Protein 1
Amino acid sequence: MTSFSLQGKNALVTGGTRGIGYALAQALAQAGARVTITGRDAVSLQAAVGQLRDAGVEAHGLILDVTQAASIQQAVAAAGRVDILINNAGTEQIRPSLEVDEALWDTIVGTNLKGAFFCAQAVAKNMVSAASGGAIINVCSLTTCVGVPGAAAYASSKSGLAGMTRTLSAEWAAHNIRVNGIGPGYFATEMTQVFYQDDAWRDAMQKKIPLGRFGELDDLAGSVVFLSSESARYITGQILYIDGGYLASI
Ligand code: NDP
């Protein structure tokens, strides 16, 4: 099992203060990595770092707003050597496409797509100059494959992220940087809680998931550890969907 170990690796998880990012950071740390999580708010960042440390893992925190180029440069410089980057920071707001304005589009696409690209670029520059290689994992979404009404900006950002994953995997393979994605299915988090308050939506959606339940954050742990590890050394440019079978059945 040593090829799944992340002992001695440094992982940077953007948007690790809560939800999926926090769970991914916890999984990487449990596999042996030193983790640095990021967030925009110092109080919630420190609380999340404290929670990870209380669980006995090595964790650090950095302030980062992925929509700001200067903030990315600062955080990546402060992070030091990064072997694993998890591009997780993201945002979503459901709004009918006829009502989407430029500000909403720019927030969603600027965070989920542009932010992820420039984080990947900043980290990859260091990996290239150190000739160290590394693993980048982009948190994609089912909206790369299915149309969800009201999610045009989000789907555009995540579909772009999937294309970016494939492009960077081809471009940076020569530097031994593997670029993959994970595509979580339906997970209740702060970002998605509004859906789960709707009983009718919950009942209907659950019936569409072959494994019969919504995702639990722990369900994502194995995939991110695997793709980060030596076990996945010949895997790049792939997106692994963790969705209880949803995509395969529609
Ligand atoms: P949460 O809202 O719980 O967490 C979002 C995280 O992103 C927070 O840590 C937040 O940090 C951070 N973040 C938001 N905007 C920025 C920004 N501009 N700069 C830096 N960090 C930012 O959502 P989830 O955990 O659900 O989502 C995490 C990722 O998973 C997202 O990319 C999302 O699209 C994706 N995803 C989620 C699914 C789900 O079902 N929940 C399904 C598929 C994909 P803070 O506010 O502290 O700065």
Note: Residues 14-15, 17-21, 39-41, 44, 64-67, 88-92, 111-112, 139, 141, 184, 186-187, 189-192 surround NDP (CB under 6 Å).
Protein 2
Amino acid sequence: MKILCVDHIGIATSNMDKSANFYTQILGLELAGTEEVTEQKVRTAFLPVGESEIEILESTVPDGPIARHISKNGEGIQHIALRVDDIEAALKELKDKGVGLIDETPRRGAGGTKIAFIHPRAAGGVLLELCQRD
Ligand code: CO
């Protein structure tokens, strides 16, 4: 498995406009795009930071994964995504090492990426996402 870089940091918000304004108006980052990922019941906004991105996440439904995260932990960092060169190989390697996975096979993420989550129990309480961009 080869980890290439921190691809993005996922930040859960209950107010997309307010969060996006902070990163654009106050920090001066550029909003590169927004996308709704229906399967994950989430609306996302991407703000590139060098090779990485800030990914702002807002739930599109009251009981989606991001809404549940916010009611449990409040707003803030929700996950950290590591970019890999081959996500299928990485998942197989982790499975062979006995690491708990939320996704044993990749699913579709925003921006046409392939993503899979490692269970926070296996990663010291951090929700880690692996992602592959083609
Ligand atoms: Co993500």
Note: The two ends are 16 Å apart (CA to CA).
